[in-house]
């Protein structure tokens, strides 16, 4: 079967001919429908993030997938069920407390592998297998956009941690600032806009399709070149919630300036190293005197995947149509790595 992967030392993805996997009892054989491409895939391809499996010379890419159960073996799934796979699995050394508690997203990097990213083959192949507990059922009607459950789950977890950090008192967020108008930022805007006033900060000129999406969702686009993060409270209003999805290191600190009293900043970006001169006294004082919080969040657990699947049924159809700018058949897969907003490789249809 065809699989899309990256060789050790390679600088671009290519097609591999690999054996169709054989599911063991308790595993499910899934026929892949669509697999999304995101910034993490580009980081893996560039060699900045992730690793090939210990016993392999290439990594099958793809961590945002939706497929159809082909063979449920001994599991409770039925042939034809639409499913989304979660990303994290136990490391080669065996399972651990994080996986036993069904909290794989809380495992430190050394205590897990990530399919399609770090140490385990991903889902960009005609079929893949997975143990049943790592598969989340999706209503058949949502199959076309099911691959978005994974990136939405990342947003759901960030919001879950943010809310949890404010659970000791009555927190009624009315204003959110999303940093970044890449795929993750746009999904955060889509999730938050029905609930509160949302500002989305980017660095692009109009006309731009991502700015159009931000405004169509009812949110306000902020050009960070004119209004940097720390100026947003003065020019617009302070934010009860900041969701950072730029990967810009400064934003981890500047988010705190953008917060209203009692607010929380959820950081999602994965920046490289960078030196920065910061008034840490003011940063520290602002956190303490205004009861602010900063939480970092990576990956997502089962509850977040289930919330994301529910969200698929709530977001407007026009959003998916405009957000997923490119569907690419397997024989033209290269184009999926060069999309204007968000792309998916299509392996098959329901
Ligand atoms: P992208 O790189 O596609 O998007 C980042 C967006 O932020 C782009 O639109 C970019 O603008 C904008 N941006 C970057 N720097 C600035 C800046 N200084 N001012 C204003 N806008 C800026 O990434 P994704 O949307 O896929 O993901 C966002 C971040 O989250 C990345 O760092 C990614 O690695 C990380 N990530 C984290 C996950 C987690 O579990 N925590 C999961 C998935 C991703 P432009 O396009 O104009 O350059
Ligand atoms: Zn992703």
From TrEMBL:
The residues covered by the Alcohol dehydrogenase-like N-terminal domain are: 25-139
Which EC number applies?
1.1.1.47
Output the Pfam families linked to this UniProt entry: ADH_N, Glu_dehyd_C
Q: Which UniProt keywords apply?
A: Carbohydrate metabolism, Metal-binding, NAD, NADP, Nucleotide-binding, Oxidoreductase, Zinc
Q: Name one GO molecular function term.
A: D-glucose binding
* NAD found in the keyword field: yes
Q: Where NADP(+) is bound, by residue?
A: 181-184, 203-204, 268-270, 297-299
Sequence ranges assigned to domain Glucose dehydrogenase C-terminal in this UniProt record: 143-347
- Which cofactors does this gene product need? Zn(2+)
Query: Which chemical reaction does it catalyze?
Result: D-glucose + NAD(+) = D-glucono-1,5-lactone + NADH + H(+); D-glucose + NADP(+) = D-glucono-1,5-lactone + NADPH + H(+)
Gene Ontology biological-process entries: non-phosphorylated glucose catabolic process
Residues annotated as binding substrate are 40, 114, 150, 299
Task performed by this protein:
Catalyzes the NAD(P)(+)-dependent oxidation of D-glucose to D-gluconate via gluconolactone. Can utilize both NAD(+) and NADP(+) as electron acceptor. Is involved in the degradation of glucose through a modified Entner-Doudoroff pathway.
| Family per record | Belongs to the zinc-containing alcohol dehydrogenase family. Glucose 1-dehydrogenase subfamily.
Which HAMAP family did the record assign? Glucose_DH
Q: Which PANTHER family match?
A: GLUCOSE 1-DEHYDROGENASE, ZINC-TYPE ALCOHOL DEHYDROGENASE-LIKE PROTEIN C1198.01-RELATED
What's the protein here called? Glucose 1-dehydrogenase
Q: What is the lineage of its organism?
A: Archaea, Methanobacteriati, Methanobacteriota, Stenosarchaea group, Halobacteria
């Amino acid at each position: 079967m065809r699989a899309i992967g990256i060789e050790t030392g390679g600088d671009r993805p290519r097609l591999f001919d690999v054996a169709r996997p054989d599911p063991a009892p308790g595993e499910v054989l899934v026929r892949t429908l669509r697999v999304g491409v995101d910034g993490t895939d580009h980081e893996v391809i560039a060699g900045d993030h992730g690793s090939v499996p210990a016993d392999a010379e290439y990594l099958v890419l793809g961590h945002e997938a939706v497929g159809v159960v082909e063979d449920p073996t001994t599991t409770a799934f039925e042939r034809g069920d639409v499913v989304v796979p979660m990303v994290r699995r136990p490391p080669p050394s065996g399972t651990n407390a994080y996986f036993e508690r069904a909290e794989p997203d809380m495992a430190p990097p050394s205590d897990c592998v990530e399919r399609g990213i770090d140490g385990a083959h991903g889902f960009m192949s005609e079929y893949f297998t997975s143990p049943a507990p790592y598969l989340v059922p999706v209503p058949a009607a949502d199959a076309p956009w099911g691959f978005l459950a994974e990136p939405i789950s990342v947003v759901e977890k960030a919001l879950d941690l943010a809310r949890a950090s404010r659970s000791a008192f009555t927190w009624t967020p009315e204003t959110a600032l999303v940093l970044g108008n890449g795929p993750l930022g746009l999904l955060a805007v889509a999730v938050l806009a029905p609930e509160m006033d949302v500002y989305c900060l980017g660095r692009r000129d109009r006309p731009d399709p991502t700015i159009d999406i931000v405004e169509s969702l009812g949110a306000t686009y902020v050009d960070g070149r004119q209004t940097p993060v720390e100026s947003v409270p003065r020019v617009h209003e302070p934010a009860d919630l900041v969701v950072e999805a730029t990967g810009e290191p400064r934003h981890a600190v500047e988010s705190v300036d953008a917060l209203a009293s009692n607010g929380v900043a959820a950081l999602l970006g994965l920046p490289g190293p960078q030196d920065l001169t910061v008034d840490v006294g003011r940063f520290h004082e602002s956190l303490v005197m205004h009861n602010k919080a900063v939480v970092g969040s990576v990956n997502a657990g089962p509850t977040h995947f289930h919330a994301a699947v529910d969200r698929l049924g709530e977001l407007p159809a026009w959003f998916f149509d405009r957000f997923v700018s490119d569907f690419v058949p397997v024989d033209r897969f290269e184009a999926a790595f060069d999309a204007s907003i968000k792309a998916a490789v299509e392996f098959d249809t329901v």
